[in-house]
Amino acid sequence: MRPTHVVFVLVPRLHLLDLAGPAQVFSTAKDFGYGYDVSYVAESDEVVTAQGVPLRTQSVWPELDPGDLIVVPGWRSPRLSPESPIGPEFRQRLRTHHARGGTVASVCSGADALGWAGLLDGRRFTTHHDLTDELAARYPRATMVRDVLYVEDDRVITSAGIASGIDLALHLVAVGRGAEAAARVAREMVVYARRNGDELQESAMLRHRGHLSDLAHRVQDVIDARYADKLPLAELAGEVGVSERTLTRIFTTATGLTPLRYQQLLRVERAEHLIGHGSTVESAARTVGFENPRMLRRLRSRTSV
């Protein structure tokens, strides 16, 4: 299968972490064999970051397919310029890629570039809290969503800025390559992440990965990969070579959940994703491993999910 190509558009005075965070996610996913290629384009041969680090890049775009991704990191902007941060050719690149079925994302003030390209009109979006009022006024045909880490609307994905670019990238890896892949990347990056986005308000997979128990992480790896399967406690205990009692004690201490409850949260989150993309409750319930859709309805109604 052809790898997903992720292209970062570099704007002068961009924030290093707006770029480096999501770039690290996708490059780590590539190292693990999950099928990503990463490249960088700019309108000049050298871009100086807000932190003073010069970056050498190219202005020639790679060939992109609908399954590929363009990301515009944010730049230092106490107030946004009245002029577009990218020229007409790059704006057209963003529009064309989206029109062909591709995904376009931004970090922080990168949403302004998407707005200049006309991709925010009629859609919900977010940005860094310092810029929400300004961008809401600049793009009145769009709907600003405040106090979230990222928002996804019709393949236009915007994030709050700085470290939230990591949450955005992990979300995209989870959707594209599965929960296990995203958890593995997050663990490699030593990330304690809370994916508070538009579609998945909190990710159990990452919210309960901030502990230091290797045994609990190994059990979570198994559950992440096989959350739709029946996973008896005895089978999980055998996977890590401990008794059921020891597994339950260590897992609950580390995550605050029993293994079953953790699996249920993963199932519900995946079901919510499917329902949000047009699946019926019954179909989503079967896909994620619930034998009876009533169980999914009951778990969805819990405010703790």
Describe the protein in words:
This protein has about 300 residues and is α/β, with parallel strands linked by helices. The protein folds into two domains: about 170 residues, Rossmann fold (3-Layer(aba) Sandwich); about 90 residues, Homeodomain-like (Arc Repressor Mutant, subunit A, Orthogonal Bundle). About 45% of the residues lie in helices and about 15% in strands. It is built from 13 helices and ten strands. The strands form three sheets. It has a six-stranded mixed beta sheet, with helices on both faces. A two-stranded antiparallel sheet has the order 3-4. A hairpin with a 2-residue loop joins strand 9 and strand 10. Helix 9 packs across helix 10 and helix 11 packs across helix 12. The longest helix is centred in the last third of the chain and has 18 residues. The chain is globular and about 60 Å long. The relative contact order is 0.09. About 0% of the residues have low confidence. Keywords: Transcription, Transcription regulation. One of its GO terms (molecular function) is sequence-specific DNA binding. InterPro entries: Class_I_gatase-like (IPR029062), DJ-1/PfpI (IPR002818), Homeodomain-like_sf (IPR009057), HTH_AraC (IPR018060), INH-QAR (IPR052158). It comes from Kribbella jejuensis. This is AraC family transcriptional regulator with amidase-like domain.
Features:
305 residues; alpha/beta; Rossmann fold; Arc Repressor Mutant, subunit A; 6-stranded mixed beta sheet; 45% helix; globular
Topology diagram in text:
Elements: E1 4-10, H1 16-31, E2 36-42, E3 46-48, E4 54-56, E5 69-72, H2 88-99, E6 103-107, H3 110-116, E7 124-125, H4 132-138, E8 143-144, E9 150-153, E10 156-159, H5 164-177, H6 179-188, H7 204-207, H8 214-225, H9 233-240, H10 244-255, H11 259-276, H12 281-288, H13 293-300
Parallel strand pairs: 1-2, 1-5, 5-6, 6-10, 7-8
Antiparallel strand pairs: 3-4, 9-10
Helix pairs in contact: 1-5, 5-6, 6-8, 8-9, 8-11, 9-10, 11-12, 12-13
GO molecular function: DNA-binding transcription factor activity; sequence-specific DNA binding
Domain HTH araC/xylS-type: 217-305
InterPro entries: Class_I_gatase-like (IPR029062), DJ-1/PfpI (IPR002818), Homeodomain-like_sf (IPR009057), HTH_AraC (IPR018060), INH-QAR (IPR052158)
